[in-house]
Amino acid sequence: MKKFKKIDYNFFKKIFKKNFKGKLITSEKIIDIKKEIINFKFLKKKRSLCLIECYNSYESILSYLSIISYGSVPLLINEKLDNFFFKRYIKK
Q1: Residue 20 gets which letter from DSSP?
Q2: Where would I find the H helices in 1-92?
Q3: What's the predicted TM-score (pTM) here?
Q4: N or C: which end of the chain has fewer CB atoms below 10 A?
């Protein structure tokens, strides 16, 4: 019987490879994605559900990419969501 090689389908893990040169370009600056995502190393320990309060900003995009690249699951929350509903998400 043939052994099958385990394939990791997480496209975002390519960010950690040496030859990845992805940049995020804003009106003010150019951001190195790999360098910024390394700041989220604490997500590497355990797969978890992560809530992101989203704004129209590059920080929200980097948070989303970081969570996915470390294998966790992002839940995007609108910044204008009432605090009552936000607290309800956290309790669950």
Answers
A1: -
A2: 33-37, 58-69, 83-91
A3: 0.70
A4: N
